[in-house]
């Protein structure tokens, strides 16, 4: 009896691309054009695969976008997890803002943040994607809030400072840096804004 190994017809077509590289290519397209502005032709062209390979490997456009966001969180935004593990609340916040300024203005990728740019202009028919982005940003807010709650419990944050309010303020500043990066602000310019923010934050 002939084994499956010896019968190419039973093996299926070998995959000719790396998933992580294809996801990085898709990420750049979503980052530049936003979810709604990105077409399947844009994606297949950048990923160098055909539609059949896209669907069989990643699913539809929405499923691909969710995979891209997962990779973005684990890779590009890994600095956020590192910052949250620092010893003091001030160190956490300063690292988040400094690293954000550096990342958002990095010329190696489109300016700004995929979590903002990718979800812009999502209209009727894309509510699930829009909600997924809202949930994703809320998850980041909750992580920071919990870290600041711990800081207050440890006496590292003033008792009259609400961790939830402070976390939201920091996220607003980070989102603002993202908008400024899209408008052409350099990391140096954003860091000067961070200097002023750190002077006024109750840390």
Plain-language structure description:
The termini are far apart. The chain has helices spanning 19-37, 40-47, 51-58, 61-74, 78-84, 89-104, 114-117, 127-153, 163-182, 187-200. 67% of the residues lie in helices and 0% in strands. By secondary structure, the protein is mainly α. The protein is elongated and about 55 Å long. Mean pLDDT is 87; it is low at 1-14. It folds into two domains: 14-75, Orthogonal Bundle (Arc Repressor Mutant, subunit A), CATH 1.10.10.60; 78-203, Tetracycline Repressor, domain 2 (Orthogonal Bundle), CATH 1.10.357. It contains ten helices and no strands.
Summarize the structure.
The protein is built from ten helices and no strands.
Supply the key terms.
10 helices, Arc Repressor Mutant, subunit A, 0% strand, mainly alpha, Tetracycline Repressor, domain 2, 203 residues
């Amino acid at each position: 009896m002939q084994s499956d190994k010896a019968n190419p017809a039973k093996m299926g077509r070998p995959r000719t691309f790396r998933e992580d590289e294809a996801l990085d290519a898709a990420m750049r397209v979503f980052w530049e054009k936003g979810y709604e502005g990105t077409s399947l032709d844009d994606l297949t062209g950048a990923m160098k695969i055909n539609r059949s390979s896209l669907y069989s490997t990643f699913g539809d456009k929405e499923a691909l976008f969710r995979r891209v966001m997962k990779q973005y969180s684990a890779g590009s935004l890994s600095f956020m997890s590192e910052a949250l593990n620092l010893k003091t609340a001030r160190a956490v916040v300063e690292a988040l803002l400094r690293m954000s300024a550096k990342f958002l203005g990095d010329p190696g990728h489109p300016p700004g943040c995929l979590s903002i740019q990718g979800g812009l202009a999502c209209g009727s028919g894309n509510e699930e994607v829009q909600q997924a982005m809202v949930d994703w940003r809320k998850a980041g807010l909750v992580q920071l809030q919990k870290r600041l709650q711990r800081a207050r419990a440890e006496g590292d944050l003033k008792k009259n400072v609400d961790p939830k309010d402070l976390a939201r303020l920091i996220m607003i500043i980070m989102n603002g840096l993202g908008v400024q990066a899209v408008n052409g602000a350099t990391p140096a310019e954003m860091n000067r804004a961070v200097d002023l923010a750190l002077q006024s934050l109750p840390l």
